[in-house]
Amino acid sequence: MVDSTLKLNIVNILRGYPKEDFTVEKIAQRLGYSGSAAFKMIVPVIAELEREKMIIVDKDKFHINPTKLELEGTFNSNPKGFGFVRYDDTLPDAYIAPDHTMHAMNGDVVDMRIIRPAEPGSKKGPEGAVDKIKERSYSQVVGAFAKSDDKNFYGQVKLKDHKLQGLKFYVNDVGLKPTPGEVITADITEYPNDDHPDYMVGVAKEIIGSVDDPGIDILQIVYSHKVPSQFPENVLQEADAIPDHVTKPELKGREDITHQKLITIDGDESKDLDDAGTAWKLPNGNYHLGVHIADVGHYVKAGSAIDKEAFKRGTSVYLTDRVIPMLPRRLSNGICSLFEGKLRLCMSCEMEITPKGDIIKSRIHPSYMRSDHRMTYNEVNAILEKHDPEMMKKYADVVPMLQTMAHLHKILLKHRQRLGAISFDNPEPEIIVDKKGHPIDVRVRHRGIGERMVESMMLAANETVAKTYYKKHVPFIYRVHENPDKAKVKDFINLLNVLGIEVHGDLRHHIKPKTFQKILDKVAGTPQEPVISVMMLRSMQKPRYTDQELGHFGLAMKYYTHFTSPIRRYPDTMVNRMIHYYGKHGINDQSKAHFGGALEAIADHSSECEVREVQTERDTDSMKEAEYMADHIGEVFNATVSSVMKFGMFIQLPNTIEGLVHISRMNDDFYKYVDKYMALVGVHTRRTYRIGQTVKVKVIHVDVDQSQIDFTVVDPEDAPKTNILPPRHSHGHRHFNNHFHGHGYGHFGSHNHDNNNDDHKSHGFHHGHFHGHNHFGSHNDNHANNDHRSHGFHHGHGHTYGHKFFGHRHNGHGNNDHRSHGNNHGHQGNSWKSYKIKNVSKSNH
Asked: How far apart are CA 164 and CA 231, in angstroms?
C-alpha cells in the first residue's frame, strides 16, 4: 500500500509542471529525498499512478496526464480580490490570485488547474487558476432597498451578507418596484465580470418587510441562508386534515402505557415536546428506563406533501426570537407534541439496565401514552439540586422517580466514562431579548442535572435503537463520528506542547477517545479549558448522517443513531418510519429493498440541512451579541485570551462573547508573533500574550451589520513578561504597531455545521459539524472569508457537537501574506468573526 501523502505530493508537483517530463530521481530531488530508500518509496507510487492513468509513462520518464489537470473545488473569496479553492479534504487549499479568479464568488463550484505546486513539506497550498465556474452558489440576495448611487439603475440592495463583502448589488427597472426602506429579495441576472468586477445586477423579486419591522434583521439572515420559512398551501391543507386528537382506530396494534408514570422535561418556552421518560428500579436490582418518542411517522406519511416539505427543511431552526419548524405547527405544536394529560401516539424504547450501566434487554414498539406532567429543566433542577420545598410539593407524585432517574443518569455517565466517551462541557450563551427583539442580556446558560439526566436517557435510547437494527441487518440511518485524522491530531498535540500540557498515550498512532478525555480532565477548571476543548473538537471529524454504521468516536459507541427528536429532525422521522415498516412487513429481501436505495441521499441531504441550520443560528447569535455589545462601548471587562495570531488576539468574555484586539491597537510596544509559542511578545518590554491568559479589555468599536466587536487592552503593563522572543539585530530605534487597522471583517463562505434546537437535551457530540477548512495549520489557514469559526492554528473544518455550540469563528485580520498557511491565518482578509461557543438545544451528538 502506497503512502497517500507522498502520492498527493507527487501529483501536485506533476500538475504544477504539466509540460515537463520527470524521472524518479528528479521527483526525489523536488521532494527533498535522497538515497535508495527514497526510490523504494517513490517507485510504487509511480506504478499506481500509471495504473490509475493519472500519469503517462514513456520508458523511464513520465508526466501528468493532460486530462487530469482540471480539479473541481469550492471557491472561497476574499474582499481583497484573491481567494482559495478547496479541492481535497486532505490537502491545503489552493491560493488563487486576483487575476486568476474569473470573478468567482464565494461558494461557487469551479474547475481549477495548478499553476504552481506547493513546496514539499510545506503547509502552504499550491497556487491555482480558475478555468470555469461550474455552479453558482448565489442565485438571489436579500437586503434593504435604497436609491441607487449609479444613475443607470433603478436602485440597489444594501448587502449585509459577510460572504458578499466588497460587492454591490444594483436593481434594474424591471418588474417589482420597491421603495427605499423595504427589505427585498432579488434574483441575480448578472454576476461580477470584467466589465463590472465589483457589482452584480438583478431584479426585485419579493418584498419581505420594512427595515423598521421588529425581527426583520433575523428574517434577512433566514432568507440569505435560503431557509424555508413559509409552508406551501398544500402542506398546510394536508396538516389541517389530520385530526387534532387520537382516534380509537389508531390505538389498534399499540401497547397501552397510560398506566405508567410519564413526564416530559424541556425548556421553559418549548412547544414541541417529542420525548417523554420514566424509570423505576426492578426487583432484581436492575433499572427499567422507558424513553417514549412522539410517533411522527404515523402522521407524516412517506411521499406526502408534509413529508416532502419536511425532507426539504431537514431540521427545525431555533433562533433567538423564533422557531422555524420542520413540520407545520398543527403537528409540531399539536397532535405530535406530548402534552400533559393528552392521549398521544408514540414509539417506545424500553430498556433494562444493570447497576454498572449495561443495557441487557430492550424492546422497541409502537404504543400510546398520556404524560402526567409537563416539566421544565429549571423545575427538575430545583428539585434535584436545591431540594426546593415548593417544587417538591407540586410534583410530589414524581419526585421519587426523578431521584431514580438522577441515580440512573450517574450510572450511565460512569459507564460512558469507562468506555472513554469525551465530555465537552463548554459554556453556552443564552441571549435574552426584549419585545422588539433587542438583546438586553447575554449570559451563560445553566446546564444542570436535569439537562444531563435527559441527555443520558436519550443517548441510551439512540444507542439501543441503532444496535437493534444493525443486528437485524436491515438498511438504516446512523449518526456517525469517525476517527480523527492523524495529521490534525498531530497538530493538536503540537498545540498542547506549546501550552505546556503533557500528553500521555500514543495519540499519533493509537487514537482513542479516552486519551482525549484525560486531556480535558487535566485542564479542567483552568483558563485554558475552553480553548483546549474547542481546538480538540477541531482536530476531529465532523458528525454526520449515513446509511453505514461507522461508530461514534466522541461518544465511544459502536452503534448510534438519532431516534429521539422526530418533530425537529428528519433523520429521526425516517428512523421512526423504518421501525414501523420493519415491524409491519417483517425483515426480508423485499422489506430491505424498500429503503435501501434512498437512505444514502436522505442522510447526505440531512447533513447539508444541518449545516444550513447551524450557519443561520450562528449568524443570528453573532449579530445579536454584537448588538448587545454596542450598548456597552467604552466599558471595561475581565476576559481571557482565546487565540493569538500575527494580526492580534481574540478575547472571550465570561459570558462567551468574543471579539478582537487587533495588533494595531497594541500601541504600548511593537509586538511580534512568536510562532513556536503562539504568542505575541513586545520587542522592547517583553510583555507577552498567550492563550488562556487573563486580560482586562475595553470595548472600543462594534459593527452590528458585520457582527464585529473590537477591544483594546487596558493596563498593558500588567501583562507577564517572558524571554521567548528570538534574538534579533537591533536597529537602534523604537517602533510600534501603528500600521493600518482597516477592518473588512466578514465571514465569507463559512462551511459550518452545528445545530441548535430549543431545549437543551444534550451537549456533547449530538450534532454538529462545522467546517471552515482545516485546523491547527494542517491546511492553509482560515481564509478570512470562511467564517471559519475558529481561532488560529488552523482554518478549517470545525465540528460542533452538542447543542449549538463550539461555533467559534474568525476571519483573519490581514497577515499581509496571501499564501500564509499554518499558524497565522487570515490571508490579509481584514475580516474576522469571533468564535462563539454556541448553545443549541436538544441533543445532537
From this structure: 28
In angstroms, the CA 833 to CA 800 distance is: 16
Higher pLDDT, 752 or 20: 20
Coil vs helix vs strand at 199: strand
* Cα 710 from Cα 68, distance rounded (Å): 46
Nearest to 705 by CA among 595, 624, 767: 624
Nearest residue to 133 (alpha-carbon basis) of 107, 99, 115, 114: 107
Q: Considering only CA atoms, which of 799, 802, 805, 812 is closest in space to residue 844?
A: 802
Long-range pairs of 323-328 with CB within 8 A, sequence gap ≥ 24: 323/271, 323/272, 323/758, 324/222, 324/227, 324/228, 324/229, 325/272, 325/567, 325/568, 326/567, 326/568, 326/569, 326/570, 327/239, 327/296, 327/300, 327/567, 328/231, 328/235, 328/236, 328/239
For 62, the enclosing helix (H) or strand (E) is strand 61-64
pLDDT band with cut points at 50, 70 and 90 for residue 4 = confident
H/E segment holding residue 356: none
Scan for cell 477548571, then name that residue. 525
The pLDDT of residue 651: 95
What whole-number distance in Å separates Cα of residue 396 and Cα of residue 440? 36
Three-state SS sequence of 519-531: HHHHHCCCCCHHH
Is residue 170 within a helix (H) or strand (E), and if so which, with residue range? strand 168-171
Q: Which residues contact 185 (CB under 8 A, 6 or more apart)?
A: 140, 141, 142, 204, 205, 206, 208, 223
Rounded to whole angstroms, the Cα distance separating 373 from 339 reads: 8
195, containing H or E segment: none
338-356 confidence digits (pLDDT tens): 999 999 999 999 999 999 9
Average pLDDT over residues 742-770: 36
pLDDT for 763 beyond 50:
no
Q: What is the DSSP string of 511-556?
A: --HHHHHHHHHHHTTSTTHHHHHHHHHHTSPPPEEESS---BTTTT
- In the chain, the amino acid numbered 45 is V
Strands (E), 321-451: 323-324, 343-353, 359-370, 373-376, 429-433, 439-444
CA distance 89 to 95: 15
Per-residue pLDDT at 385 exceeds 90: yes
Helix (H) or strand (E) run with residue 608 in it: helix 599-630
d(C-alpha 96, C-alpha 74), whole Å: 12
Q: Rounded to whole angstroms, how far apart are CA atoms 690 and 382?
A: 39
d(CA 44, CA 294): 56
What pLDDT is recorded for position 821?
36
Name residues whose C-beta falls within 8 Å of residue 224's C-beta, 6 or more positions apart in sequence.
141, 142, 160, 161
* Torsion angle in degrees (nearest 10) through CA of 437, 438, 444, 449: -20
Lowest mean pLDDT of 20-34, 104-118, 505-519, name the range. 505-519
Specify the range with the lowest mean pLDDT, choosing from 136-140, 479-483, 514-518.
514-518
Q: Which of left, alpha, beta for 742 (phi over 0: left; psi -120 to 50: alpha)? A: left
The rounded radius of gyration (Å) of the Cα atoms in the chain is 28
- pLDDT > 70? residue 752: no
DSSP three-state, residue 142: strand
Backbone CA torsion sign across 488, 491, 495, 501: positive
**pTM of the entire predicted model:** 0.82
According to DSSP, residue 669 is labeled S
